[in-house]
Specification:
The protein is mainly alpha-helical. It has helices at residues 2-5, 7-17, 33-57, 65-86, 90-112, 123-153, 161-213, 220-263; strands spanning 22-24, 31-32. The chain has one domain. α3 crosses α5 (90-112), α4 (65-86) packs across α8 (220-263) and α6 packs antiparallel against α7. The longest helix is centred in the C-terminal third of the chain and has 53 residues, at 161-213.
Amino acid sequence: MDALSKLPEEMDHLVNSFLSQAIVGDTTVGFTQYIFWMFVAIALLCVVIFVFKKKQAASLAPKGLFVNGVEYVIEFARDDMCKSILGDTWKKHFPFIASLFFFILFNNIVGVIPGCHPGTGTMGVTTALALVSFVYFIVVGVKRMGPIGYLKSLAPEGIAFPASVPLWLIELFSTFLRLITLAVRLFCNMFAGHVVMGAFAILASLFVEPLLQSFTVAALPGAATSIFWMLILIVIYAVELMVAAIQAYVFTLLSAVYIQLVENE
């Protein structure tokens, strides 16, 4: 009960830690902890790419777990999110799709590290990502059909003029709805995951800390509870790593689907 009595205070501290805190300037236009960790994720991604290219160039055949692992992820993005969705046009869209996937993936993975708050944990960055995806597939559609042709393509073919107007408005609304759903889905899933991880980390620490401070025979009954919460925390972290990869995949896959829709109009 002593451990649980500290839970409300620790949860308040956890919730407050997710609020944007300005490192430079203010929280409106300043450099917050979310932006800082986003740049850390970008730097980590650049290092991984640099090391991968250097190791890959050192031998004709890929060697080592690192090189093979990165190649597998790149091929997965190419085959599963580009070729299978976009067909013959996959090559011109692959740089965008791969950049989007790896940016979100590395931000999500950094977010699993205790104390880190990457960009995908804030609505501002996920909205910016969704806006980039939204603008990209709109530009693809306009370049392919022209501005008027793209707007006309929103209405189903074969529908007479009076009846096509409400259908066109519904389709226009659903197009803009993609922007909202992309941003909200990514943010909510990652933010909820961070809160759950933090809550279980607090529970684990509250039960383990007394055991470490005075490990006596009398404290042995509480050891089982401490071990239980530690095991649960490990499972939660493993699940959150999986969720981080899945959310990067879902966001990128949906972006590829939206591009495919305007490519095949």
